[in-house]
Amino acid sequence: MIRNLDQIFVLLQHWLVSFLAAAWQGAAGVLINAAAIVCVFPALFAVAVWLERKGLGRMQNRLGPNRVGPYGLLQPIADGIKSLTKEDIVPLSADTVVHFLAPVLLVVTAFMGFAVLPMGRNMVLVDLDAGLLFYFAMGASTELAVFMAGWSSRNKYSLLGAMRAVAQMISYEVVLLLSSVVVVMMAGSLSLTKIVEAQNHYTWGFPHWYIFTPWGLAAFVMYAIAATAETNRSPFDLPEGESELVAGYHTEYSGFKFALFFLGEYVAMFSISGLGTTLFLGGWSAPFSFLTWVPSWIWFFSKLMLSIFVFIWMRGTLPRLRQDQLMNFAWKFVLPMCLLNLMVAAVWRFMGDGWLRWFVCSAILILAYAGMGWSELRKKHIGPRSYRYAE
Amino acid sequence: MSLVFYLIAALTVAGGLASMVLKNTVHCALALTVAFAGLALFFLNLDAQFAGFAQILVYIGAVAILVVFAILLTKGSETPKDGVFSRTWLAGLAVAAAVFAVLGWAILHTAPMLPGATPAPAVTVEQIGQALIGRYVLPLEIVAVLLTAALIGAVIVAMHEKEGTK
Amino acid sequence: MTPLAGYLLVAALIFSIGLAGALTRRNAILVLIGIELMLNAANLNLIAFWRYGPHPELLTGMMFAIFSIAVAAAEAAVGLGLVISIHRHAKTTDLDQMNRMKG
Amino acid sequence: MQEAISFTPQLSASLIAEILWLIPAVPIVASGLAALLKQPRRKASATLAIGSLSFSLLLSLVAFRHVVSEWANGRATREVVNFAWFQTGAVNVDLGWVLDPLSAVMLVMVSFVGLLIFIYSTGYMEHDENYTRFFCFMSLFAGAMLGVVVANSLLLLFMCWELVGLTSYLLIGFWYQKPSASAAAKKAFLTTRIGDVFFLLGIVWLFSQTGTLLFYNHGAGSLEPFALAGLLATPAALGLTAAGAIGLLIFAGAAGKSGQFPLHVWLPDAMEGPTPVSALIHAATMVAAGVYLIARVYPLMQAGALAGGTTTALTVVTWVGAFTAVFAALIAVAQNDIKRILAYSTVSQLGYMMAGLGLGGVAVGMFHLITHAFFKALLFMGAGSVIHGCHEEQDIRKMGGLKADMPLTFATYGVGMLALCGFPLLFSGFWSKDGILEAAQHWSVAKTPFYMLVFGALLTAFYMTRQVAYVFFGYWRGGKPAHESPAVMTAPLAILAFFAMALGLIGTPAWPWFRAFLDGRAASFAWRGFMEPGLLALMCASTLVVFLGLGLGWKLYGDRSPRPQEPDALERVTPLVWGWLRDKLYVDEFYGVTVIAFYEGWARVSDWLDRRVWGGVVAGVAWTFGLWAQLNRFLDNNIVDGSFDKGCDELGVGGGLLSRMQTGRVQTYLRLLALAVVLLAAILIWSSRA
Fold first, then answer.
1. Residues 6+ apart with CB under 8 A from A263
2. Can you spell out the DSSP letters for A153-202?
């Protein structure tokens, strides 16, 4: 019974597929899965938007949406209808084709990421041997969409926003990659399912999630930072800094295209949190060995929503950085820490079992963190912003 | 010669052509990414998963972005008055055609000797990693050095004189 | 026609397109783009030969392609850096006007 | 010759052997840290250097104890720890370190002398503003030198070897603001490079022959019978086997490092560096590295020798060593710079060691190396103390009568001097030098080296007496009076002096402990040792020679101090010879005349050719044509001109056409390139099809 509940979606898919001829079943199965993903995450998107607006409201001592439906629950639907029915304005001088392609590309690439995420036991669209690489390849191509959006709408705010976004995404993509490489080193595979399997053991009822190791924790923190920057969320939301450039690269978008951007942003958030969950939080594995009876997908999605909540929380809490601060932080602090973390992971790997490696690795990381932070603080100079794109 | 092959080939060649003939430089760059994507698909079609994804990651994720950045930094996006092709475009085209002729001729003449379809080799990423660390460790190190040098070099070349002397 | 020949032909075509672009465009950046295309064509050849070659398990062609991808990335970075600095000095990226080294 | 030694192979290395790498690693790390220190942090850097080196000394002593105890239990050990450095294709390059009597002895010597010199230099360099840099370099050197000692792979040894050379360069040029110092540094670097090139050739050859650079690898090493047999089987040029040829190449490297003739020229100039540097690097350790290298690869040098026989390589080593010994001793007689005298004496003593290796095997040479390291370091540090006391004065003619002013220095210096002269029975130099002489006496090839070495001993005694007489006896000829050096400098002197005496006792014929230890045989005490045929006679002879030298020196220089300007005592006897010797037998000049003059001459020749020959030809041709023109002007004006101008125009046009190809446009060149490719490809395909 429990087993069936765990595998319910898998079984459902098999049942649906079983109506078809054997020749078609493979393709059909993939199609069904894709359809499921494409349906589930927009729904999740609606929920998340509502959560965000309510949560932010609470954090800022206001009610948030409360008119449409009980507790404003139907607000997302209303928004959706609005954005669907609004007029789609394209600037006269805009580069029409690119202007149209940009949001589509963004959303498509954002969705592509889910193809390799295991959302539960046996619940993965395609179990690629190089899954992680695929994920990052897709993530890399979103930057292009952002650039297209900003450039095509012939608007200096859009362009600046796009440039900022692209620069920021590139810088933090490096961090994102390097912090995940640690996990790959440990799990010895790029396949996300294998990575989850590698974390799905328990000692004394506690799981072997990578976050519960010194290097894992450090990598997770850096991953979280990089993820926030990748998705242009506060405090790294300069590309959409309302106060500086109207709404960033999608200033000139309206109606459904704007909704697509909005959707794309959230989907990217979901997928990146999903990846973080898979890499560091043991994917769909239960947090305690006595909870393994709970269906795996419940765990996955609850972890996902938890991290989304953290996103929202940070947005409600932290002020926005400045562009040069952002870049310096990425290149001068996080990146070196990532590299150091690689070393630490290697040390951990080769020191073998025992308490000693815990001590050594944590010591190295803490010392490095303290030292670098200290030196950063010491040579902190308050001055005019010093960043430059084109002369 | 499956249908897939022809589709991808059409996509790639179209992208390449567009990237070379379009007037607007940014369009060229975008078309280039299409060509890159096509090549990546080719790699996947050739059972070279790793290479394919690496292609996407490096070319679409990095090189294309670099190119558009460079275009914007050099204000190259507006098309020049006196045409986008150099004065000697005809000669260039002729030479390129000659190259293609020779290559195609060679291929077509050797086509009969080429091996036919073979079963797909099962290559896991792990094998590639092992090879990189084992047989190809020296090239790997050299490439690492090269990349570092290129990073520093690019920074220094593109850096401002003011910064340079400071 | 064997699949390998098909791949080789496509690669040759892309190579020639890239060469044509590199030979005919004025804009230095586009010349670089052409060169990138040529490199990619070469990579396609390598992968194709690896796939249909006698010893795919040795990964030779694949490795070659991967390394050349890495090198191409470096090449693009440096090349574009050069273009930018040239633009900063000569205020142009037009190759027809960059002929100060004429004999 | 020594008989083949059988070391019991150790399959599992002991703990101390496992961590042997720490000995060189720690000082190197320390120097890295010292490099990060700012100049004002003097104490810290000195502490780092001394602390790290004393750690190494401790480990070395442990290792030494381990080896000795093993040997005392009748198991002469050679423990190796090897690991693969990297592997590319089928070739894999291994590195490793070895712990055997040879390396153990060297380790103790280097780290001990080094430590003493470090302590000494805290006093000597006190007023130098580059204190931290000095200690950074010093401990880097110490680490590298220890690396040379422990290396079990010719490659690792070569790396450390070059590192040592580098630090020597850095330290000779330590006072780089002095042009002479930087010049000397460059000279040292380049001269040793000459040797190292040959050394590298030898390494490559060895690798290509045996496929490994490890010395010992449980039977698979390059110094072990299997590989040696292979090397002997392959002939090289001039009737040498590959083994012999490689041995000679390696010896060239060794000659460069330990200043054997004709590559000795850098060592005397190296004295531009601070005195502790001269003591540590250019007397005790680095210059001995060459000797150690030969001792290390001895099986290679010896390969193919029948019992009691010798090999070409060893013969060459012997002759070069003996010649250098006499040659340098001669020069040393007529020097006036206190450090130069010691430098030349170092060169000659190194010659002794080389000769000892060539004649009597590892133990003989190594024994002299160890004793020499102690007393020569002692002498240099004593000289340093003298210089320090005489306010940086180095000319012995401006000193004198110091025995009153600096009694401690005088006493220790005297000990060192007597040890160097080989004063009988009491001093270590006597025993080690005697071992060499004895071996020379029994050498099967020729007796000449024996006489050369004896003569060298005579000269040694002579010039040391001269120096001491100049410096310590007579009356003070300098400016403001000298003062004794601080205890931090004199204490190491005392320690070294003790060892300069005591160390001889482990190598007496009665109790040849050292030789037995190195050869892995049991040592036994027996007065019979002296009873070997001819030994006593030899000892008496060398004693006589020493006394002769001392007496001669004393007669010429004793207790009467010439004024700085008035000619030297020996000069009065034979001004001509004196002149030669003072000018170092014109080796530098010789190089100047040959190498440099070659280029100059070449330039002059080509210049002459240009001016006279070609110029003359051109002039002649011009003249002829002028005549021709004179004759034919008439015709010219009428007929030729038109066509000639036409031709000129044609030429001009052609040139223009050619230069137009050089458009300076990248794409043009690219186009031509592509065209060339097309043509080549076409030709290739066509030819392959035809």
1. A42, A45, A107
2. TT-HHHHHHHHHHHHHHHHHHHHHHHHHHHHHHHHT-S-HHHHHHHH--E
Q: Does A343 touch chain B (CB under 8 A)?
A: no
Domain count along chain B = 2
Note the pTM of the prediction, 2 decimals. 0.59
Residue B65 lies in a domain: yes
CB A103 within 8 A of CB A261: yes
Minimal C-alpha gap between A7 and chain B (Å): 28
Is this complex's ipTM strictly greater than 0.90? no
In this structure, are B76 and B7 located in the same domain? Answer: yes
> Per the domain annotation, does B105 fall within a domain?
no
**Among candidates D409, D171, D187, which has minimal Cα distance to D279?**
D171
Pair A147, A167: CB distance under 8 Å: no
Mean pLDDT across the stretch A70-88? 84
Whether the CB-CB separation of D184 and D269 falls below 8 Å is answered with yes
Question: For residue C56, what are the domain limits?
Answer: 3-97
Rounded CA gap, D145 and D129, in Å? Answer: 26
Give domain status of residue C25, yes or no: yes
Nearest to D678 among B91, B99, B138 (CB): B99
On whether residue B29 sits in a domain, the answer given is: yes
pLDDT at A2 over 90: no
Q: Is C98 on the interface with B (CB under 8 A)?
A: no
Q: Write down the mean pLDDT value for chain A.
A: 84
Nearest-neighbour CA in chain B from D22: distance (Å): 27
- Within an 8 Å CB–CB cutoff, is residue A249 touching chain B? no
Contacts of C102 in chain D (CB under 8 A): 662-665
**Backbone φ and ψ of A135, nearest 5°:** -55, -50
The answer to whether A93 contacts chain B (CB < 8 Å) is: no
Which positions 73-102 of D are in contact with B (Cβ < 8 Å)?
86-89
Q: Which of A88, A65, A76 minimizes the C-alpha distance to A42? A: A76
Mutation site for B-interface testing, chosen from A101, A147, A171 by largest number of B Cβ within 10 Å: A147
CATH of the domain at C12: 1.10.287.3510
Answer whether A390 sits within 8 Å of B72, measured CB to CB: yes
Tens digit of each residue's pLDDT (9 = 90 or more) over A184-218: 888 888 888 888 888 888 888 888 888 888 888 99
Touching status, chains D and A (3+ beta-carbon pairs under 8 Å): no
**Tens digits of residue pLDDT in A245-263:** 666 777 778 778 888 888 8
Both B1 and B76 in one domain: the answer is: yes
Please tell me the distance in Å from D660's CA to the nearest CA on chain C: 7
Task: From D570, D180, D555, select the one nearest D339 (Cα to Cα).
Answer: D180
**Same domain, residue pair B4 and B70:** yes
B142: domain range? 122-166
Helices (H), D558-614: 569-573, 575-582, 587-591, 597-608
| Domain assignment present for C48 | yes
Quick one: pLDDT at residue B166?
33
Q: What percent of chain A has pLDDT over 70?
A: 94
Structure tokens at D271: 């004295």
Whether residue B98 and residue D668 make contact (CB cut-off 8 A), yes or no, is: no
Using the beta-carbon criterion (under 8 Å), do C66 and B85 form an inter-chain contact?
no
Residue of B nearest to C98 (CA): B86
Subunits with 3+ C-beta pairs closer than 8 A to B? A, C, D
Domain final residue pick, B80, B105, B130: B80
Q: Tell me, what's the pLDDT at A21?
A: 80
- Neighbouring C-beta atoms of residue D170, cutoff 10 Å: 21
* Domain annotation covers residue B89: no
Domain at B2, CATH number: 1.20.120.1200
Residues of chain D with pLDDT under 50: 1-5
**Minimum Cα–Cα distance from B55: chain A residue:** A137
**Within an 8 Å CB–CB cutoff, is residue B105 touching chain C?**
no
Mean pLDDT of chain B: 83
- D674 near C CB under 8 A: yes
Same domain, B73 and B142: no
**How far C102 CA sits from the closest chain D CA (Å)?**
4
Number of domains in chain C: 1
